[in-house]
Amino acid sequence: MVALLQKRGAISFTLGNRETDIFLDWPDGRLAAAGKTQVVRSMQPSNRVLWFVKGPDPDECIATDLEDFDKAQAMLAALGCVEIDRVEKHRDIWFLGDFHITLDRVPGLGEFVELAVMTDDAESLPGWAQRVETLAGDLGLPADAVQTQSYRAMLRTSLRTAGVKAAITDRGPVFEGKDEFGV
Description:
This protein is α+β, with helices and mostly antiparallel strands and 183 residues long. 25% of the residues lie in helices and 42% in strands. It contains 5 helices and 9 strands, in the order αβαβββαβββααββ.
């Protein structure tokens, strides 16, 4: 995929980032009950920290940059939030014209390509959707390979399929039957 992006003139933005997403909720699960997800993300070596809330609508996301990953977690813990899940991935980000192309490697799941366009113009979305589909075809990505689940949901499904029982504790996720899950 990298060679194809380079051939098409894509510009690398961030290569070789390791991202750690810490999912946080209150012990009573009020965010999950409202269909929302709260995440603090550490990105290394780009040294960025994001805090974002998604939902309840699938395309609804509010995000902001933060300076200190550990301090953000400590502040949210002081407010009563607990870690409920963690997902790690290796990410490369490319730009091709108006498109934002993300190449992800998720331990335990595999490799993924995300094609996106950043816009605040909701009325233009139908036209952009068609352009994204065209780009996917141009990049050799099969239409039947579209994945709408989050990495977190796919990892949970993978765990259940493998017969691994997981429990969320105040220390974060604990996996029964495995010493290390690899994510």
